[in-house]
Amino acid sequence: MKKILLLGSTGSIGLNTLELVRAFPDKFRIVGLTVNKNIEELEKQIREFSPKFVVVTDQSKAVELKKKIGSSCEVISGEGSLTEITKRGDEYDILLSAIVGFAGLEPTIEAIKQQKRIALANKETLVVAGEIIINLCKEYGAELIPVDSEHSAIFQCLTGEDKSYINKLILTASGGPFLNKTLSELENVTVSESLNHPNWKMGSKITIDSATMMNKGLEVIEAYWLFNLPKEKIEIVVHPQSIIHSMVEFIDGSIKAQLSRPDMKLPILYALTYPQRLGFEGVITDFKKIGQMTFFEPNFDKFVSLKLAYDVIDEGGTAPCILNAANEIAVEKFLSGKIKFFQIPELVKDALDNIKTIRQITIESVYECDLLTREYLNKKFS
Ligand code: NAD
Ligand code: MG
Fold first, then answer.
1. What are phi and psi of 247, to 5 degrees?
2. Looking at ligand 1, which residue's alpha carbon is closest to its atom 41?
3. How far is CA 358 from CA 133, 148, 180, in A?
4. Cα–Cα distance measured from residue 135 to residue 226, given in angstroms and rounded to the nearest whole number
5. For the segment 343-379, what is each residue's pLDDT rounded down to a tens digit?
6. How much is the pLDDT for 79?
7. For strand 244-250 and strand 166-173, is the pairing parallel, antiparallel, or unpaired?
8. Where on the phi/psi map is residue 139: left (φ > 0), alpha (ψ -120 to 50), or beta?
9. Fewest CB atoms less than 10 Å from the CB: which of 23, 144, 206, 361?
10. What is the pLDDT of residues 255-282, one digit of tens each?
11. How much is the pLDDT for 197?
């Protein structure tokens, strides 16, 4: 029985994880859940999964929840509460890190220090602090298993292989909802068009990232840290059907791929059970129904975010952290109607051009840089 601490339980990854826990009641147990605000959904989850403790980041929502559930479960809130529960190392075996954005960093670091398995959905953690995270995992002997479908695919392709035989990683990208739009057509796309992803149902931030293709850019950085390869060996290919989740090409020209119908339950399950697998019939892939799979070159001129992401790898230091913070702010401004779609990468570039990169990457420099970038961009809207 694996005890799971699930951060971000009301999100898309969180709900998929709970479906798996429901499907395997004798394999997994939920000990803790966390949400930002959605206490209606959390209340249902508490009644079904009986966690020992929950975190509600929003303090007034936490008070409301306490009134509803009484003493059936410990409710924690306020600054530091996510870290406080991840410190409870005796209570859990696996941290499922599925909060969106920079907020996922601190509790993930704490779980590494507790020497836990980290099932990592929160890619932003590796984007902003990849070097720190990889070194901490080595120092504390914590396991970092990717949940992101592309990285799970590569991780699965590499199982049993010697790393020196890798020629390159091939990350597949759906291309998002605007794959076939021209650059000028992108000028007037709406929020609801941008939220309409063809293959995946995900939270709003990552869905917009998929529309700008910043998501793939973040994933290149994520792969760079996870698999320790130069960026020249990480290639993107657009594959609109999202059946091949990514591939590894070896030095003899042979290529391994991992395939399935697009459903995040598979990479989540693998991160929970690795190196074992569990019998599961929840995701069936029928090639006769898929029909065809196609592949294209990504368009770096139309999706500028891709280029920005490759560039910050060379820049190093806190440059990826600036890219991430600027992107979080830009996506938030787009979702709230303050900027247009094409301005998202413009804001990111503006921040990268105007905020100084700190060479020495430490926890402190990452936090400083994240804050500076947010302040810099928010000032433009005050
Ligand atoms: P989501 O928006 O659906 O859910 C986010 C969760 O985090 C919610 O439970 C919310 O309450 C919580 N949360 C949000 N902001 C918070 C904050 N500041 N502090 C504490 N909790 C907060 O997001 P999602 O689509 O489930 O994605 C989660 C993470 O997984 C992201 O980093 C995303 O890039 C990654 N990911 C998601 C998918 C997917 O299919 N959804 C695939 C690959 C990777
Ligand atoms: Mg992905």
1. -145, 160
2. 202
3. 17, 28, 38
4. 11
5. 999 999 999 999 999 999 999 999 999 999 999 999 9
6. 87
7. antiparallel
8. alpha
9. 23
10. 999 999 999 999 999 999 999 999 999 9
11. 87
> Is the domain defined by 316-382 classed in CATH 1.10.1740.10?
yes
Contact 283/262 with Cβ under 8 angstroms? no
Average pLDDT, rounded, for the chain: 97
Whether 249 and 338 have beta carbons less than 8 Å apart is answered as no
Residues at CB less than 6 angstroms from ligand 1: 8-14, 35-36, 38, 57, 98-100, 103, 121-124, 148, 200, 202-203, 205-206, 264
Mutate to test the pocket of ligand 1, among 15, 33, 99, 133 (most ligand atoms within 8 A of CB): 99
What is the mean predicted confidence (pLDDT) over 203-220? 97
Neighbours of ion ligand 2 (CB under 5 A): 148-150
Distance 85 CA to ligand 1 centre (A): 18
| Site of tokens 């709230």 | 336
In DSSP terms, 250 is beta-bridged to 166
Q: Which residue CA neighbors atom 32 of ligand 1 most closely?
A: 122
- 231 alpha carbon to ligand 2 midpoint, in Å? 17
* Tokens coding 372: 């500076």
Q: Both tokens of residue 129?
A: 């602090």
Instruction: Answer for the pair 111, 83: CB distance below 8 angstroms, yes or no.
Output: no
| 100 alpha carbon, distance to own chain's centre | 7
Query: Counting Cβ atoms within 10 Å, is residue 55 exposed (0-12), middle (13-18) or buried (19+)?
Result: buried
Fold adopted by 2-146: Rossmann fold (3.40.50)
Q: What distance in angstroms lies between residue 258's CA and the mean position of ligand 2's atoms? A: 13
**In the chain, where are the structural domains located?**
2-146, 151-263+283-300, 316-382
Residues 6+ apart with CB under 8 A from 228: 134, 163
User: How far is residue 69 CA from its own chain's centroid?
Assistant: 31
Q: What is the dihedral of CA 352, 358, 360, 365, to 10 degrees?
A: -100
Please give the distance, rounded to the nearest whole angstrom, from the Cα atom of residue 328 to the centre of ligand 2: 17
